[in-house]
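WP5 quarterly update. Target: NAD(P)H-dependent FMN reductase. Source organism: Halorientalis persicus. Length: 196 aa.
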Amino acid sequence: MSRPRIVAICGSLRDESHTRKGLEHALDRAAETGGETELLDLRTWDLPVYDADASEAGDATAFTERVRAADALLLGTPVYHGSYATPLKNALDYCGFDEFENKTVGLLAVAGGSFPITALEHLRSVCRALNAWVLPHQAAIPRAGDAFEGDAADWRFVDEGAADRVAVLGERAVEYATIEPDPPCMESTENVGADD
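C-alpha cells (predicted):
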C-alpha cells in the first residue's frame, strides 16, 4: 500500500512565519507516522489575485495539480482581523471541488493574540462548501510570539501544549487520509462556484 500524500499550504508570506513553522512540525509528525509530505509555500508560487476569467494565470495549473494529488491537506494561516489570510484565500479561490471534494483537510491557525478560533471556523466553512472532510481535531497557536524560540532556519516550540496539538494534526492527517467519504453535505450542494 502506498504512503498517503499529505500536502500543507502555508497562508503566510512572512520570512519568519510562525505558521510555516507550525506546518513544518505537523508535516514532520505526518512523515514519522507514514505520510509522504510536501509544503506548498505561497511565497514561491505566482498566483495573481484570482480572476475567474483568468483561472489558469501564473502557476495556477501547477498549483492545483499539486493540491489535487494530495490524499490530505493541511491549511495553515495567520489570523488577520479575526479571519484567515489573503494569500491563503487567493490560493483557495484557484481550487474547487476537483481539489477538495471528499479530501481530508486539517486546519492550523496562528495568532499574535489569544483567540485564533474564528479563522479556523471560517476555513472549516470554506472546506465544507467544497465537500471536504475536515478533521475534528484542529490546531491553534495563540500568542505565537511566545510559542517559539529561534529564527526561521533554527527554531523550536517552547509551548509544549501547542507543539502537541500541531503534532496530532499531522498524525490525524495520515490516519484519516483515506477515510470513506460521506454523502455530500448541504453546504456543498448549494455551492455553485464562480462560474455562475
